[in-house]
Amino acid sequence: MAIPKGVLNKPVFVKLWESYPLFSKVVLDFGIFLKYKTLKLAKIPNKIILSSRNVIYINNAENRGRALLISDGITQSHLTEFWGEAVKSFKPSLVLDIGVNYGECIFSTTYEKDTTIIGIEANKYLIDYIERSRKQHVNSHQIKIIHAFAGDQEKKNQTFFIDTHWSGTSSGVQISEKNSIEKMEVPAITIDSLFNQETLNAHRLLFKIDVEGYEFMVLKGMKSLLINCREIMGIVEFDSRYLEKAGVDLDSYLAFLDRYFEIQFYDIDNRIKRLSSPSISVLQEEFGMEHVHTDLIVSSGREKGQVL
Fold first, then answer.
1. What percent of the chain has pLDDT over 90?
2. Under the phi-then-psi rule, with left for phi > 0, alpha for psi from -120 to 50, and beta for the rest, what region is 65?
3. Were 188 and a residue from 31, 132, 149, 168 both cysteine, which residue would form a disulfide, CB within 3.0 to 4.6 Å?
4. Which whole number is the average pLDDT over 60-86?
5. Nearest CA-CA partner of 94 in 236, 226, 255
6. What are the beta bridge partners of residue 266?
């Protein structure tokens, strides 16, 4: 007997974790015991060899790390598939992973030798694991990891809430009142501040943004890239509940995306569909619920409207 793969899918398990944390912990421990026949930390691996043969290191005592162990490093299969296909067919010259977590996206594939690769993560407890994975990656010298909070302005201290029990729901807004939330200050940057604007028009940009409600702020802080990069392809998490907690007007956010991109999304059956109108009501009707969780695929330039 094994845990069904769908249970460990990110949106499914996060909802389960928020509502039933003790039961969710039991599910993870059960999955670890089934796979490794032990619950002793010393006998449980602290790294995962991905299907690409690249490695990611994880904290085997932390619950999201354990979920990754059980699922062989894939809790969002469509994200991993999109990323691998985009790197292969789009051949980006600049890659951004904003909200790295353990790095199951940025380290999931191999890049061209002239690609610039940047990962940004605000959770200080994950940086050591990310760096260990980076050092073992075939493109290690091309990858730069930045410990910072990405947003729409630069400042010395940005409040960040770390969920020490489930790293995937750490955010710039306090999503939960659980006692596992640790408040700290981290430096805040904009993505545009990292680049020489004069060189941007030569780039084919591939990006991923998964920052639990702060996606709009990240995008507003990378307007120069959106305007000046020659071609762009990206995947952005869209969780209406987290976005609203961060104070985002959903229709304004979708209108902003529509200004720069062709927008597609994964429907309830994980099929890619074009967003007919930049309105939250369209997504709510598509999913049949008020709160929408999906991933948006955005593209501009020569690839616009021809995503994978």
1. 76
2. alpha
3. 149
4. 94
5. 226
6. 272
- As given in the structure block, the two tokens for residue 195 are 């680049």
Assigned token pair, 59: 């904290």
**Domains of the chain by residue range:** 5-70, 77-303
Q: Which residues contact 203 (CB under 8 A, 6 or more apart)?
A: 92, 93, 94, 225, 229, 230
Pairing type for strands 262-266 and 204-209 reads unpaired
Reading the block at residue 204, the tokens are 């084919």
Residue 306 banded pLDDT, cuts 50, 70, 90 = very low
Taken in order 75, 77, 79, 81, is the CA torsion positive or negative?
Answer: positive
What distances in angstroms separate CA 269 from CA 78, 122, 233, 266, 273, one per listed residue? Answer: 11, 32, 22, 8, 10
Please give the C-alpha separations between residue 167 and each of 73, 148, 163, 225, 264, in angstroms, as whole numbers.
15, 15, 5, 28, 27
